Amino acid sequence: MKPHAEIAEVWPRDGRVRLVGHIHGHPAEGEWRLLLTRRSHAEQRLDYPAQVKGDRFEGELPVADLAAATDTAEAGIGAEVEGGVEEWDIHLTDGEVELRAGRRLDDIHGKKKIMVFPEQRVRGIGVRPYYTVKDNLSLECRTGAST
After folding, report:
1. β-strand 85-93 against 32-38: which pairing, if any?
2. How far apart are CA 26 and CA 67, in angstroms?
3. pLDDT tens for residues 71-80?
4. SS in 3 state form for 10-34?
5. Are the CB atoms for 50 and 38 separated by under 8 Å?
6. DSSP states of 29-62 as a string?
7. Is the Cβ–Cβ distance between 126 and 146 less than 8 Å?
């Protein structure tokens, strides 16, 4: 299996999304950060400290940062965002390698349709974690009314 950041826990609450997991298939030495990459504009990135002890990592990100980035997109930087939805992919990085965050070691396939996380709203933008069709973890920012 490809090296990745295996997600064990997702805690979306109190204006933050907290992630806990293990680094799988790669040495866990050095300093690590959670890296968010805007899918429609890969050059736009946000990163946050991650605490690593052994192969276990933990980090959190404020949803207000994603709401602010989505506000910027609506102001014209990313006007092509379809249906008011912007997606951010999550990686764990040590500066040299980027490990995609996901959950693959639990034998549950198709998490996109099974696991649903609550949405948090900031400045009219809803932010919620979700699993992709490949069981990777991403974030969705949706403008307008919550669904």
Report:
1. antiparallel
2. 32
3. 665 544 343 4
4. EEEECCEEEEEEEEECCCCCCCEEE
5. no
6. -S-EEEEEEETT-TT-EEEEEEEEETTEEEEEEE
7. yes
pTM for this one? 0.89
- What is the DSSP-derived secondary structure letter of residue 73? I
Gap between the Cα atoms of 93 and 95, Å rounded: 5
Q: What is the CA radius of gyration of the chain?
A: 15
> Residue 121 CB: number of other CB atoms within 10 A?
15
Q: Is 2 helix (H, G, I), strand (E, B) or coil?
A: coil
Structure tokens at 120: 């948090």
CB atoms within 10 A of CB 111: 21
Among 130, 131, 129, 126, which Cα is nearest to 141's?
126
SS3 118: coil
How many helical (H) and strand (E) elements, i.e. helices and strands, does the chain have?
2, 10
Cβ atoms of 4 and 105 within 8 Å: the answer is no
What pLDDT, in 10s, does the model give residues 131-147? 999 999 999 999 875 55
